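Margin note: ligand = nicotinamide-adenine-dinucleotide.
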Amino acid sequence: GVKIATIGGGSSYTPELMEGFIKRYDELPIREIWLVDIEAGKEKLDIVGKMAQRMWDASPYDVKVHMTLDREEALKDADFVTTQFRVGLLEARIKDERIPAYYGMLGQETNGAGGMFKAFRTVPIILEIVEDMKRLCPDAWLINFANPSGMVTEAVVRYGKWDKVIGLCNVPVMAQMVEPEMLGKQPDELIYKFAGLNHFHWHKVTDAHGKDVTQDIINKMYEGDETGMPKNIHDIPFPREILEQMQMIPCGYHHYYYQEEETLAHALEEYQTIGTRAQQVKKTETELFELYKDPNLDYKPEQLSQRGGAYYSDAACESIASIYANKNTQLVVSTKNDGAVPDLPADCVVEVSAYIGGQGARNVAFGELPTAERGWLQVMKAMELLTIEAAVTGDYNTALQAFTINPMVRSGKTAQRIMDELFIAHKDHLPNF
Ligand code: NAD
Ligand code: G6P
Ligand code: MN
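Resulting structure:
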């Protein structure tokens, strides 16, 4: 039987993960699941861990859910390690959002100043986990969900020297759910090709006869169809001219870059009324954990779809099942480029369509990107590499370079001031600086 270890097991997404594993039990015979958390997450771990066990008890399968604060015990001989932890909890996310906003800039979970600081906090922990894995489960695969997922995966490969890793996101899953519906097709009638970085990718679609139907989807996007946007992203129409010019479909996070003005205005308005996204999420999470406490609840409640990461298990559990059973399912993953996106170095991590099997990801070649997108991508990857380097070395000057090159950070003395304030606000979680 398979042993799974999940770091950040107290997350409200754990039932989503259980549902995905239960659904795939026949091809992925799990024996035990170890949910790991820290002292601060103990209460959540206890509630959601019991709920997870109830889900298995209601299934035909005999699986034991263990809860522990001892990461080593969980990692020992694990086959798959999944990561869904949040260093500094939602309080840290509020600071990532609030501090840049005081100065009129956007700080988001994975974008702008906030995303860079989430990387500064998360990279040291993922590298500790990788070192533990080298000792305790050297054959295991690491399936990362912790954000910023692309940068965290890059850190694992580049600094952890660990290649058995796959980085995940639910955004491509959601796009591939709604777009076939837009065209009145079944999902298996369309062929997808994604390329770019996590939360910064584009895709093209062809039908079963090889005919490019990207423009047909673009047309539908302006007819008021459901766009498949995660709940945390303000859903406004993209500038149509840009989509028509590049003949690709951007991901939701491109709103921050193609429409920075509108997105910032909307965020600042929300911050003054209903609060930042982290503050909104806190409420949803409280409601979810109230539900999870119900000893009769043994299935994933519908309210979890209010979280931005809905359908995460379709990526996580399917990639694990595909590796385990060598299924060669096509998924969108963060993985080493190896030439799939020739506009970026071969050894960096990209988010692309790939076939997932026993050897990991075999990327689908995308080819060169159009001029504008190539430029964006090269700047964004440089920003990511500088951010990770700063996270590992603790070098202030490298951090300031990352801030300065980030397209969402207006450069200059205010940017440096935001960075300095974030360093103070997060000092407990930045051991390297
Ligand atoms: P959360 O605030 O519920 O945190 C999950 C758990 O991690 C908590 O119980 C917390 O106590 C625990 N934790 C914190 N530090 C830890 C550590 N060092 N070791 C072990 N556990 C630790 O977070 P969430 O909203 O469930 O999100 C979890 C993570 O997943 C975040 O990093 C978030 O950004 C990410 N996420 C990713 C995607 C994606 O598309 N890849 C989507 C949604 C969320
Ligand atoms: C999105 C993304 C995640 C993101 C999250 C936020 O869909 O794919 O990477 O950070 O959901 O969700 P939340 O509900 O926490 O705002
Ligand atoms: Mn994501």
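The chain has 16 helices and twelve strands.
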